[in-house]
Amino acid sequence: LLGLDPTIIFYMGQNKSHDLDPTDALFVDVIHTGAGILGQWGPNGHADFYVNGGTSQPGCFSTSLIKTLSCDHTKVTPYFIESINSKKGFWAVPCTNRISYNLGLCNPPSDKHYVLMGEHVSHKARGVFYLSTNADKPYALGFPGGRRPPFIP
């Protein structure tokens, strides 16, 4: 089950049984692009991916706050669509939080710890992951450091 920046709008009450969570399917992966604003902060799944920190997406800035926030929230769709046929891939690093990611403190012990986000995510993936994108198409940056990934789907 895939959550594309699950909305916070209709789920702000006390009944958490309506929230997306790992008990909803054998594997739940969630891609966050507008977390804490229009989207839920999470984590909500077995694997949660925070694109560009999970909140502000490159290429979304506008003089209109509503346009900026809605762009952040809906940018998840083109990211996922691109992941289907991307030759580079959206490779994410396991990391405990956004601050550590932004400071460059998330350094897995080996390349096999990176996880591919999107259509080709491994159902064995567990945890919280962060990744960056380009502001414009193609969004995928490929494997970190331009190295060859551990596998290509």
UniProtKB/TrEMBL annotation:
Pfam families: Lipase. It is found in: Secreted. Residues 3-139 form the Lipase domain. One of its GO terms (biological process) is lipid catabolic process. Its main location: secreted. One of its GO terms (molecular function) is lipase activity. Gene3D superfamilies: alpha/beta hydrolase. GO terms for cellular component: extracellular space. The keyword Cell inner membrane does not apply. This is Putative pancreatic lipase-related protein 1. It comes from Panstrongylus lignarius.
